[in-house]
Amino acid sequence: MRAQLREQVTTIIARIPSGRVTTYGRIAKMTEGATARSVGAVLRTLPAGHQLPWYRVVAAGGRLADHEGAVEQRQQLAAEGIMFDERGRIPSHYFWPD
C-alpha cells in the first residue's frame, strides 16, 4: 500500500470519536483508493505501542471481525459505552460518520 494511502487510513482511524465505530468499508470510501481489505491490512501491521483506536473499526453490519483481538476489542468498546444487540452486533446509532 502506498504510504500516502496508509496515512489517509490512519488519519481517519485517529478521528473516530470515543463511543462511536465505523467499518473497514466506510474508511476505504473516505480515502483515495483503499479497499476494506487494505484497511484491515493497515490495522494488522500497526507497530506495537501505537495509540490508534483500532478497536473502533468493525466489520460490515456492526459485527466484530474474527481476529485474535476480538475479545479485547469488545471490552474496549463496552468501556466506551457501546452496547451490542442480542445477535452480538453494534446498533447503527453508534456508527460514525452519521
TrEMBL record:
The Methylated-DNA-[protein]-cysteine S-methyltransferase DNA binding domain, residue ranges: 5-81
GO biological process, alphabetically ordered: DNA repair; methylation
Record InterPro entries: ATL_DNA_repair (IPR052520), MethylDNA_cys_MeTrfase_DNA-bd (IPR014048), MethylDNA_cys_MeTrfase_DNAb (IPR036217), WH-like_DNA-bd_sf (IPR036388)
Molecular function as annotated in GO: methyltransferase activity
Domain of life according to the entry: Bacteria
Listed PANTHER family: 6-O-METHYLGUANINE DNA METHYLTRANSFERASE, ALKYLTRANSFERASE-LIKE PROTEIN 1
Protein's recorded name: Cysteine methyltransferase
Organism: Kushneria phosphatilytica
